[in-house]
Amino acid sequence: MEWRSLFFLTIIALFGFTTGFPQSILPYPHPQFACKPPYNSYQFCNITLSVAARAQSLISHLTLPEKIHLLIDNATGVPRLGIPPYKWWSESLHGINDNGPGVTFNGIIPSATSFPQVIVTGASFNRSLWYEIAAAIGVEARAFFNVGQAGLTFWAPNINIFRDPRWGRGQETTGEDPLVAAAYAVEFVRGFQGEDRLAGGGSGDGFGRRRELAENSGNGGLMLSACCKHYSAYDVDKWGIHNRYNFDAVVTEQDMEDTYQPPFKSCIQQGKASCVMCSYNSINGVPACAREDLLRRTREEWGFNGYITSDCEAVSAIYEHHNFTTTREDAVAITLKAGMDIECGNYTALYGLSAIQQGKLEEGDIDRALFNLFSVQIRLGIFNGDPANGLFRNFGPQDVCTSEHKALALEAARQGTVLLKNENKFLPLKRNGISSLALIGPMANNHTMGGDYTGIPCSPSTVFDAFQSYSKKISYAIGCLDGVPCKTRAGFAEALSVAREADTVILVAGLDTTQEYEEVDRYHIRLPGFQKDLIEAVAAVSKRPLVLVLTGAGSVDVSFAKNNPRIASIVWIGYPGEIGGKALAEIIFGDYNPGGRLPVTWYPSSFTNLLMTDMNMRPDLSRGYPGRTYRFYIGETIYEFGDGLSYTTFTYTLLSAPNKLSLLGTTTDVYVGDERNYAYVDELRYCDTLVFNVQISVTNNGGMDGSNVVLLFSRVPNFFKGAPRKQLIGFDRVHTTTCKAAETNFVVNPCEHLSFADEYGRRILLLGNHTLMVGDIEHIVSIEV
Q1: pLDDT, tens digit, 9 for 90 and up, residues 172-206
Q2: Which is nearest to 70 in space by CA: 378, 352, 339?
Q3: CB 225 within 8 A of CB 193
Q4: Candidate list 98, 196, 255, 311, residue with the active-site label
Q5: Which of 86, 336, 349, 698 is the most exposed place for a label (fewest CB within 10 A)?
Q6: Superfamily grouping for domain 418-594
Q7: 0.85 cut: is pTM over it?
Q8: In the CATH scheme, what architecture does the domain 649-784 have?
Q9: CA 93, 94, 97 angle in degrees (round to 5)?
C-alpha cells in the first residue's frame, strides 16, 4: 500500500474520524456485554483488579447449575448478574465464515474478505504475509463483533500435519512439515489476537486502523482469541469403517515428539494462543479430550494461559463412538478432570450435575474450568462494560472488504501459486501474441474457489472472469457437464470444438469440495472421473501445447501430464480465494513472476495402497512401508515438497556458516548407541551457546524480478535408525531484482533444528558431520565433544 494511504488510515484510526460519531449512537446494534448498569458494581466488573481476582469473584457469585450451563459453547448466561448468553464458537480459518453459530452474515455486514485457503498461503513460505492476513482477518472479526454478528473467540488456526494426501481437511493446513506448521501457528495467533500490536511488536506493519491497538493495553490486552486445533494427531475424517468420531490414532512416542506435537508447542509458547482445541480421535486407546497427560502438559510444561475446548460433539463421542466410558456422566467427568474447560456440545449441560451427584466429578473441577474461561473473557474485555467505550470500538463495516484487504488476498494468491512445469519457457504468454484464448474445464468458471470454511466473499469472481481483459476473443467450455466429479464424457465434444478453434488453451481442472472436505476423505489420488481423459483429448487437438491449471489441496497423480509434451505448463493454484482468478491471469501473462513452492509431496497413485489409518511417519522395510512426507518417505514421487519454478533463475552463495561446534562443557554424558555417539538434548545445559548463523546470498540471473523461497535443510551424520532423510530447519521468501543479489540469514539452534526424537520420544543430537543443504549447496557442520 502506498505510504500516503497508510498514513491517512492510521490518523483516522487513532482519532476515530471514520464515523464522526461515538460508537454508542452508530446506526447498528451493539454486541452483548456484561457489567452494564446496574450490574457494574460487582468486583468482577472492576477493571483495576487483576484478571485472576475478577475471575474468582465471578465464580463466587454462581450457583452450581449456573456454573454447569456456562461450560458449553452456547452458554446460556446469568441474567440475575447481568451476564448475557455467549456463543464461544466463531470461525476465521482464512476469513470470517459462518461454519460456527457465533458468526452470522444476516446483518449490517453481508460479507467478508475471502483469503486463499491456508494450504495456498502455506505455499508462499512467507511469515510476514501470514501475519498480515491474520491481522486483517482480526480487524474484520472485531468489526463483526462490534455490530453483534460474531463473538470474540474464534477457533482457528488448524495446525495439524497434512500426513496423507487423501485427508479432506488437509486444505486447512500449511502442509506436511512441522516446522512450517509451527511457524504459521505463531504468526497467525500473534496477528489475530493483537497482543503484538499492543506491545509494539509484530512481524509486519499492519493495515491502517490496526494502529488503534497501541492506545491502551486494557485489562489483559486481547483483541480476539485464537484457538490452535486439533490437539493432537488428528488427520482422519471418514475413511472406510473409520471416522473421526471413533478413530484410534496409534502413534509412537517418537512421531508424537518430532511430528505431531511441535506445532502446538510453538503455538502456545511463542504464539501465546489463548485457546487449544482437543480433537475427536483417540491416541493410543484414549480419547484426546480425556488425555490428562496431553492436556495438563500444555499448562505445566508449555506455560499455556487460556482455555481448552473440545471439538464439537467430541465429549459425546467418548461414550457413543469410542465406547471408552460406560456412562455419559463418566464421559463428562473424565474430560473435565483431564483439563478440558468447555465442551462444544451439550453433554456437560445434560449430565454434569448428575456426574457431581454420583461423585464422579467435583465442583472444584468445574471452578477450575470456569476460571480459565472467565480469565480469557476478561482479557477480551467482555466484563469491562460497554465495548463502545473501550478498545477497538471504531472497527465496523467500513473495515470489512476494504481495498487493502482485497489487495492482500490477491497478493496471497499470487505468492501461493506454484509453477510445476514450463517446457521451453512456454509461459508467460504474450498478450499481443494470442489471437484467441479458450478456457476449458470444470473449474474454469467456478465461483467456489475458496475451499471449506469459506464465508460470503466480498466480490467473488471466476478464472474466466479474470481473463476477460487479457484477450479480445475468449471462449469457454466446461468439458464435464456435472462439474468436478466428471462422471461422464458428456461435454467433451463442445470442449474439443472450442479447443480446435482457439490459438491457446488453458484447461482448469482438479479438486473441489465435492472431493475433499470436512468429514470427506478420498480413496484415491487420481483426478476425479474422466478429467484425465478430458485433458488428454483437449491436448491432442489444440493448436499449441496447453496450460494445465490444477485446483485442490491434496496431491493428484498427474504423471501423465508431467510427461506429455502436448501439455507445456502445469500451474497449481489450490483454493485461491475470491480474487484467485486474477492472480492466475497475472502469472500466466507475466504480470507477476511465480515463486510459490509445494507444501506437500505429490505421490503416484500407488501410494494409496497404504492404509490411511497407519500413523507411522518412519518407513518399515520389513512390511514394505515407505514412510510419509518428504522427511521419511523413500518411495517414488511425482513432485517433491518444495518444488516450484520461476520465470527467472537463481543461484545461491553460502556467505557464512561454521565448520565445527563443540559440546564441551554443555553436557556431562555422551551416549553410544546405534553405531553413533549422541547427547540427549534435555541434558545439554547451554544450548544457547551452540546457536549459529547461516548467511546466504540469492542472485537473480534472469530478465525478470521475482521472489525466491529459500529452503534450508539439514541431514544427520550417516545413517541412524529413525532419523529423517532430511528436515527443513529454516525458510525465507526473498525478493530479488534482475541481475542483482539479496541476502538472507538463518539462525540455527542445533538443539532444536539438528536434533530428532529417538524411539522413546527423547530428542537426541548426534555427534559427527551434519549436512546443511540449500539448493545445490551442501555444507558440513561437525559437532564434537
Answers
A1: 999 999 999 999 999 999 999 997 665 544 443 34
A2: 352
A3: yes
A4: 311
A5: 349
A6: Glycoside hydrolase family 3 C-terminal domain (3.40.50.1700)
A7: yes
A8: Sandwich (2.60)
A9: 70
